[in-house]
Amino acid sequence: AQSVTQPDIHITVSEGASLELRCNYSYGATPYLFWYVQSPGQGLQLLLKYFSGDTLVQGIKGFEAEFKRSQSSFNLRKPSVHWSDAAEYFCAVGAQGNTGKLIFGQGTTLQVKP
Amino acid sequence: DAGITQSPRHKVTETGTPVTLRCHQTENHRYMYWYRQDPGHGLRLIHYSYGVKDTDKGEVSDGYSVSRSKTEDFLLTLESATSSQTSVYFCAISGRQGNYEQYFGPGTRLTVT
Asked: Are strands B87-94 and B103-104 parallel, antiparallel or unpaired?
């Protein structure tokens, strides 16, 4: 069965430091991959997506992610974290069957220290 | 931002009472989804719709029903609310079949006492 794993439930980084959030998926074919961000009390906002082509994708707010098929990973990165990046981040993969459904990971909560 | 609203935004209800949550979109998107969000579980799909009167179950559909009589509205009903249905409920929309790119509403926090 398809699944998405975000190994880190909670991460704390200092403001200005680099960030990498991990995401691993299980899927037989080339996946559609997404990262969403959720600020406290808000809905989810799409950060970036990978459908095909260049394995390094750029998103909003200075985020990028790299698709690595050999590692079944789609890690999210940012070179320099801002206090406003504190939020919960979700990785998701498109479900098989062309249904438009997404399967989400459990989420990673990012705390930013001043 | 996608034009998606959810109502109510907060609700407290008692065990055994029926509850209906509404999702309204102004984007004329074909696909609509209901998720629940619980700590440690991420988002889990309850039901989804691929057109007016066309709906299907997600992974956690027990105890929930949905209806979609108009493109813009997708209703989620808890026929007899239980404490295990205390959660935050999100609606999402998607425009194209197989596109997978979903846009989310602000959520409804439901507490069942």
From this structure: antiparallel
Question: What whole-number distance in Å separates Cα of residue A106 and Cα of residue A84?
Answer: 21
* Tally of structural domains, chain B: 1
List the one residue out of B68, B84, B82 whose CA is nearest residue B33: B68
Average pLDDT over residues B82-97: 91
Q: Which residues of B touch A94 (CB under 8 A)?
A: 98, 100
| Distance (Å) from the alpha carbon of A37 to chain B's nearest alpha carbon | 11
Please tell me the class of the A3-113 domain: mainly beta
Is any Cβ of chain A less than 8 angstroms from the Cβ of B31? yes
The pLDDT mean for chain B works out to 93
Q: Which two tokens stand for residue B58?
A: 């997600």
CATH number, residue B72: 2.60.40.10
Beta bridge partners of B111: B12
Mutation target vs B (from A50, A60, A104, A109; most B CBs, 10 A cutoff): A104
Q: Span A73-92, mean pLDDT?
A: 97
Contact B58 A101 (CB under 8 A): yes
| Residue ranges making up the domain that contains B16 | 4-112
As a whole number, mean pLDDT of residues A89-104 equals 85
A105 and B CB contact within 8 Å: yes
pLDDT > 70: what percent of chain A? 97
Question: Is A44 an 8 Å CB contact of chain B?
Answer: yes
**Inter-chain residue contact B98 with A49, CB threshold 8 Å:** no
Query: What's the pLDDT tens digit per position in A13-41?
Result: 999 999 999 999 998 777 899 999 999 88
In contact, A101 and A48? CB cutoff 8 Å? no
**Domain positions in chain A:** 3-113
